[in-house]
Amino acid sequence: MQILVTGGAGFIGSHTCVELLKRNIDLIILDNFYNASPKVLDRIETITGKRPALCVGDIRDEALLDTVFAENDISAVIHFAGLKAVGESVEKPLLYYGVNIEGTVKLLSAMDRAGVRKIIFSSSASVYSDEAACPFSEDSLTGCTNPYSWTKWMIEQILTDLHRADDRWKIVILRYFNPIGAHPSGLIGEDPKGIPNNLLPYVAQVAVGRREKLGVFGNDYPTPDGTGVRDYIHVCDLARGHVLALEKMEELPGLEIINLGTGKGSSVLEVVSAFEKASGKPVPYEIKPRRAGDKPECYCDPEKAKRLLGFETEYSLEDMCRDSWNWQSKNPFGYEQPE
Ligand code: NAD
Ligand code: UFG
Question: Mind listing the pLDDT tens digit for each residue in 179-198?
């Protein structure tokens, strides 16, 4: 029995592969390395002592998918593969709808042909509407402001319709809040290409000297210090949530949507201060205008994850900053060191 991990070479996927291998769960990664490095495989092997099987390819390649299912004894799929940059999705909507939606439909169709009807899908807190109030519970109002988030929302709908049509499907939709941190070994972590879009990689690159200062997007929100509040979750906690979902899947009624977050919000300035403390490095910043589409606050009600999966987070914001700094300082340029 094997788990197919699409996008398993990426940030969250690689940490989830480590958690699976630690529990002796066999897996195969399908990834086209669009946003990942093949070096991840060596690092996973160093951490776990096991090298995951790898298929290099695109989730939109139907023939390849059929071969992967025919040649392996796959029992379930954890589906991370996709594109995730909100700003880019506004500029290139067809690319995002193509990779995320067409890719997922092709994957689901191949699974159906192969009789593999168990899937865990990476959704996002960005599907919650600006009209909904925090903490977001799974039945809070949804509604999106950019193509990336719509792809997640639409895939949730596709999965819901699929389950309605055929109740042999077991589906867990995980809505992630803000995954940060890195494996405590410092061997795997987040390695964005170009200028980071997200807060933590940007802060870490300022601390390590790759960037001069952080731009803080707005300090006039209705939050305690005026900066945006998010529910940061350690990527290792998040990865463990996937293993629990996999283990509990059989007992769950069929399709469940579950938030994965800590339930606690932290502001941008709180993150900056925690990172400075963890790294011992200054993180200079300047206040910039608000970023279009940002919510003032976004944090979850984690009750359902606890009730259905027995999931509770273990790492604090300090732990997240320490591990993020450990990764960044050991790998200042990520997986690829400059010549
Ligand atoms: P990531 O970019 O690090 O990982 C995605 C992986 O998918 C990469 O390894 C990439 O090479 C691969 N990939 C992309 N297109 C592919 C294709 N067509 N075929 C095969 N492989 C392909 O991103 P991540 O942060 O690990 O996110 C994983 C999933 O979780 C994504 O679906 C993302 O939308 C979702 N998510 C992420 C966050 C976040 O803040 N990181 C939050 C909510 C949801
Ligand atoms: N921020 C800055 N400066 C930066 C980057 C971010 O001030 O350079 C602020 C943002 O305004 C926001 C907070 O830091 O208040 C977090 O921003 P991120 O870009 O790190 O994260 P988001 O909450 O905007 O979005 C992320 C992912 C989405 C995902 C969502 C889930 O990018 O893909 O979390 O909640 F859907």
Answer: 999 999 999 999 999 999 99
Which fold would CATH assign to domain 2-180+233-261+301-309? Answer: Rossmann fold (3.40.50)
The finding on whether 58 has its CB within 6 A of some atom of ligand 1 is yes
For the question of residue 148 being annotated catalytic, the response is yes
> Is the whole model's pTM more than 0.85, yes or no?
yes
Q: How far apart are CA 25 and CA 44, in angstroms?
A: 14
CA 203 to ligand 2: nearest atom? 8
Instruction: Determine the Cα–Cα distance for residues 39 and 31; give it in Å rounded to an integer.
Output: 13
pLDDT tens digit string along 109-144?
999 999 999 999 999 999 999 999 999 999 999 999
Of all ligands present, the nearest one to the C-alpha of 84 is 1
Domain ranges of the chain: 2-180+233-261+301-309
Q: Which atom of ligand 1 is nearest to the CA of 31?
A: 21
Does ligand 1 lie within 6 Å of residue 3's CB atom? no
d(CA 279, CA 271): 12
Of the listed ligands, the closest to the CA of 151 is 1
* Active-site position among 96, 97, 128, 148: 148
For CA atoms 204, 128, 8, 307, the dihedral sign is positive
